[in-house]
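User: Modeling request: complex.
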Amino acid sequence: MRLAKSLLPTLREDPSDAEALSHKLMLRAGLVRQLAAGIYVYLPLGHRVLERINVIIREEMNAIGGQEMTMPVMHPAEIWQKTGRWEGIPEMFKLKDRYGRDMVLGMTHEEVVAWLAAREIRSYRDLPQIWYQIQTKERDEARPRSGVLRTREFVMKDSYTLDPDVAALDRSYAAHERAYRRIFERCGLRFHVAQSDTGMMGGLGAHEFLAPCAAGEDEIALCAGCGYAANVEIARGVPAAPAFPAWTREEVATPNARTIAEVSRLLAIDPRLTIKSLLFVAPNAGPVLVLVRGDHSLHERKLTRALGEEARAAHPDEVRQHLGAPVGSVGPVGARVAVLADEALREGAYVAGANRDGVHLRGVSAGRDFEARFADLHAVAAGEACPQCGKPLAVETVIEIGNIFKLGTKYSEALGAMYLDEGGKEQPIVMGSYGIGPARIAAAAVEQLADADGIVWPAAIAPFQVHVVVVSLRDAGQVAAAEGIYDACRAAGLDALFDDRDERPGVKFKDADLLGVPVRVTVGNALAKEGVVEIKERRAPRREQRVPKDRVLDTLQEVLAHPR
RNA sequence: CGGGGCGUAGCGCAGCCCGGUAGCGCACCGGACUGGGGGUCCGGUGGUCGCAGGUUCAAAUCCUGUCGCCCCGACCA
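Assistant: Request completed. Predicted assembly structure:
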């Protein structure tokens, strides 16, 4: 591609709307433009990156027997009503056709797959199947953000497995896990595979593929010792217990001290020796006093799981009503509501609110001073012990780039996707569903590899393999040599970008660094003086080779064959 | 949905408090010089100041409403 006449608008400054590194760089390097909140145009360069990622995904999906197809973006409401997902999903775009019929814009395709399977799959002999597509999804996100990382419209590779039973599903699931690992490895990403919450998809199990990066939205706990990795939503860490002083139970005056920090400072104790008491109200169970250790924070997803329903934080007047004391002075002793405590509080004696303003209780122990149900409730912090091997856990910020779910029979039963087994008995098809976000792969690669000068693409997903820069358009020798190199690259099957603009060299070099193409060939003064051009790797700018112009292609192929 | 911020030329911003001819840098167009890390000089083009209403002799500026975008949180198949 020749730059002079291409739509490749680079920006000298960071756009004011962009915060995340990948957002800034993808805008600056001319990969994308934003049409509306969470809705993006992919310009030619961005399109190329996505296509290269999609090629890798296709190869690996085909390798495990995936069959590519295309399902509709727009669906009749009926199939969603049958599975019960028509109601209660705020992200669903709903619309009506001209006759007033309800339609939905697809955010995922379990319903369509189950509908299709209900018509086309009849016998155990038809199973297993792996169906996939690379197609646009629409989700009315509450808060699109971070550029291309969280959008309302995005392309997704979604695949679905159909199996006769759970054992077969396990095999399809394992095949996907292997394929996903290969895809992300080939894309040049650092990533982790972690157990995850099955969430509203329901189902038998799930894993997420997570790429560490600063702009991430999730956190995972990782164990370097045994490889344990889990989203903090479900990760179980074992916090070290503090040294408990030999307290007898007594009241202590804590005037004007409400927060854990204030109380522990006033009493000159370790915050780990305090209990944080939070009143929640559950729709069915009513008020629940939730306890975590003073230095811990409650993870609300864990609370939801422990309660079996979603509770909300109580209003200050509700706290007073149920416990007779203001927020900050409440505690479990004598509380006339159910108490749910984090596992970390099973042992030891703590300082807790006394349900009276200005007073706390010292030496409070679960079991002796109050009754509580225990559950894992606190968000895992770095340094807690691994639940499997006891080594310290690390916590990393990550972006989800793929997920795999064992769905079970929820969708097939709702839509009548049945088959006849060997005994002639009708059985529901066991489904799995699996997603990858190509745009997130691209953004995660930018986040992980960029340096101060711009993007550094992994060779496998770079928009071009070679970036040819001619220093001076006035020098006919340079131009002829650069044209020759550009033509030779293309003839050899290398994707090349040719900066043929009449710009000063500095502008071209800055843009080349910004765009992040793996290898740059510079045709400049050294050509006339020494008969050589320069070949430089984007990721190793200090290493530069000077090669005669007829050796360029060989050198390029060598460099590209051994990235980094 | 709760909290905060911002909408002025293609991009980045000033002007707004204290009403009175809409400005700067970059980009863009023409010219001259220059040519290895975002050049210099000369001359230009380009703006319903997000939108609507109000106050006023006069509104980018004050008031009311509204739309859009960003950030934090909630949410997230």
